[in-house]
Each structure stands twice: as C-alpha cells, then as structure tokens.
Description:
The complex is a heterodimer. Chain A is built from nine helices and seven strands. By secondary structure, chain A is of the alpha+beta class. Chain A is flat. Chain B is α/β, with parallel strands linked by helices. In chain B, 44% of the residues lie in helices and 18% in strands. Chain B has helices spanning 8-13, 19-22, 37-50, 67-71, 79-83, 117-130, 147-154, 167-184, 201-218, 237-245, 249-252, 257-274, and strands spanning 25-30, 55-59, 93-95, 101-103, 136-143, 158-163, 188-196, 226-234. In chain B, strands 3-4-2-5-1-6-7-8 form an eight-stranded mixed sheet, with helices on both faces. The interface between A and B is medium-sized, with 36 and 31 residues.
Amino acid sequence: MIRSPELPQINLSDLRLAEARALLEHDATFQLPSAEESPVAYVQKILDGLCELSLRDPLTGLSNRRCFNNLLNREIDSVARSGKSVLLLMLDIDYFKKVNDTYGHHAGDLVLQAVAKCLETCVRPLDSVARFGGEEFAAILPNCPTSFGSIVAERIRKAVADLSVVVSPTETIKITISIGGTFAPEWVRSTTALWTERADAQLYRAKSAGRNCVFIEEPLSVSVSADEKGMLFGHFLTDDTASENIANFASNGAHNELDELK
Amino acid sequence: MSDVLNTAQDRVVTPNLPLQLRHKVIAVTSGKGGVGKTFVSANLAAALAKRGLKVLVLDADLGLANLDVVLNLYPKITLHDVFTGKSKLEEAIYKAPGGFSVLLAGSGMVEYSRMTSEVRDSFLHIMEGLVPNYDIVILDTGAGISDVVLFSVSMASEVLLVATPEPTALTDAYATVKVLAAQQKRQTIRMVINQTAKPGDGRAITAQLQLVLDRFVNAGSEHPLSLIHMGDIPADPSVRQAIMRRQLLAQSDPGCPAAQAISQLAKNIDVALLRREG
Lengths: 262, 278
C-alpha cells in the first residue's frame, strides 16, 4: 500500500518543465502532451514519461535494472504468500567483448538489440525480461513449474543461437548465450540479492562448462511422498498403538494432498 | 570429514567460514519444533564442557530459540547489540551454569529472521571472531527449513539432527535431511533420537531413515548421504523436571538415564569429531 505524502500547494506556472520535456522529446516512443491540455494533465503526462524513462534501458527498450529489482521484489512477496513457483534466469552473451573488439561498438549495440528482441519474443506476456547490465540480461517467469525450467531456458538459448545479426552491409554474425536459473525458495521470503546471486552462480557454472548452455539450480525438494512415508514408518508396525497412530497419520496426510489437488 | 561446500557454485553463493573454523562448528537442528533441540544443545554443551572442552553455544535461531529459557539466563547484552554495533562481541558472551559460554540472540533479533546479505555478513564476521577461541561451537538453529536455518547450518561442518520417534517429527527430520542433501551436498548427518521408549529404538529409527534415503534420495546420486547414529536420549521424567526448574540435567539430576545418555552422546561426539579418545 503506497500512501502519498502530504503535498504542498504547487503553482504550476512555477514549474520548470522544459528540460524534462526535452528529455522526453528525444524518446521516439513517447507521445508528448500538447500545450492545449489542462496544466495538471500536462504535468502528469510529463511525470509519467519520466517514470517510464527511469525504468527502461534506452538501448534495448527492455526494463532496466531498477525496474527489474522492483519486479523481483514483487515476485518475492507473491512467492512468500502463495508458494507459487517462480523462475529467475540470468542470461549473458558469450564472448561479447570479442564482438566489440572485432566489429566495433556499434555492432555490439546491434547484437544487444537483437538479443533483447529475441528474448522478448521467447517468453510469455506475463514474464519480464530486463537488461541487467552490460551484456547480461535477466528474466522473471512467474508460475513456471519446476519441471519446465530447463525446457524454457533451453528454448531461449536455442532461439538466440539461431539468430543471425547483421552488423554491417557485408557482415552477419552468430552469437550464443549462457543461461543460469534458479527458482525462488517457496517457503521463505528471500531477498533480491540472494536470489540473483544464486542465479548468477548457475550462470557461472554455465560459463565454466563451456558457454552456450543452460544450468538451472535443482529446486529443493521438501515434499515427502506417501511412498516415502509408508517406508519411513514401516518399522513401527510391530507396536499396536503406534501402528494405529501411524495409520491415522498416513490417511490424514493422504487427505491433505488430495484436497490440494482439487 | 567431508567438505560439504566445496563446490564451485557454493563458493560463489555463500561466502563461508574458512574450513579450519567450520570444522569446529556443529549445527544442532531439527525438522520439527518441540523435539528438544535447544534442550539437547544446552545439555550437550555442558557434557562436552565437563569433558574439558571449551564450548560456546550460539542461539542461531536469531531470537526464536528458547536457550535463555532453558538456561534461565537473561543477559543484558545480546547478539542484537553486537549486530547493531552497540556492544563488543566479548561483552555479549556469558558463562552458562554448565561451565560453557553462551551468546544469546535477544528478542530484537526477530527482525533478522529473514536472511539478508547484511545479516549473513555480520553473522559470518561474528563467527570468524568467535570460533578460534573455542574447541567447539554449537549452533542452536531454528526448527524447520528456512534460509536462516540453511545458512547457519552451512557454517558448520557437522549437523546434529534431533528427532523424536513420533511420525510427524520423523517426517520433518526426513524432509530436512533431503534438503540438506540437495542444497548443501552433505555426505553425513549425525542423528540423535530424543524421547525413545527402549534401548535400540533410536538406532532402528536412524537405520530406517537411511533405508528410505537410499531408496528415494541416494539412488543415482553423486553424493550419497549417510546418517550416523550418535545416540538416543530415553524418555525420562527428570527431563521435564529439569525444564520446569529451568536447570540443566547435570544440575537437577545428574544420575538420571537421560543425563547418562547425554554424557555418552558427548563422548561419542568427542571421539568422532575431535578425534579424542573416550
């Protein structure tokens, strides 16, 4: 819940909006407010535009790191409450420095833009992709079952490997990315730092393993299946009262699991 | 002794205690609450101290452990004051009745019950300062599986898992073992079964847990995990009495079966971990 602080009375004519307007003018995607609008609507649009600018990476148009951290915090909150399975991917372009050194920085920018566009088309509308910094990208995939993690990441890796980026009229280059991923721990409120560190560690593994590959941290399994429980309590069955207790316990456990399925 | 965190990714994930320090640290944990984890930590510490070891118990449950209640010790200066920089580390260490030292978390630590990198770093820093001064440091961790518990367990080379024969306690203990196997690639976990009905029960329970592990977790694993049975503590009315009096068993009824079992447990740990002769 965001509570607005008490605002002082502002005389709109005192505001210096030219600089902000100029900033927004340079952004092709932004619709500038017209002078005919009411002063409040005008200022509001300028503010909206600045907020938008502050959350976007200018080169790729993706969310920037600031925006991404907000999204990540929101997911941590929802994971802690709902126990849903959310996947965080860290994606890094392999040998990006070589691209810059060989073809120049403009080529590097084109590669970043091409990868950004590719990543966006690879994920669902509810997923978020961000430029994390340099040649590193990040993606949050809410509601991603743990068994799908590697499949999704692998699909993204392949899509990038299939790209051909035209860096000059005569040159087209191929690029690859390494991907590390980790699911949010479902039973705790993690932190953005811990979560990204864990995903980064997987990315590091992918890089160490030769790049152009995917490493997803194996999610912690804390569920104890009915089979495991049955075997766990097998030795009690000689004792009458104990076996009764265990029979009750086992049937209660089975009940709960069924309820959850419904 | 296995270096449980000696994998590339863990070196990146968790800045950890240096190995030579970690070897002196035992984490006492349990899947379920209320199985006597803190009672075991405190009484084990006293028994180890009696064997001539310099022991420190740290409330690694960050204020949720009842170590203060078990020891009837309510210190003015706590881990919280050290974290906030109000007090020096030495000032927060108190002598417990059983001849060992304690560092209590203080209720202010509850706000740290979520692990952040700052808490983690402070924690590590404190441990680095503490551990060299003791023969053995016992971390009384929280029950269940949270990031705080997993982190404090990661600072210990040995895990002592306390369970009781109750089905719920066993299920939770088993779940904890599974998580420790998966997350920290542990190869050994030491078991203490509390409140057993008759001799041999604890060993049978550990053996059964191992069977289930072998079938469902160890099969095909690169890091098979073995449970080592360290001892049973028999159900004993003296334990309840000691807890009600807020005393250690060694104070209230040193000859009772539970006290004898804890002395034996201390001896087993001394021999197994510190390689000292019984």
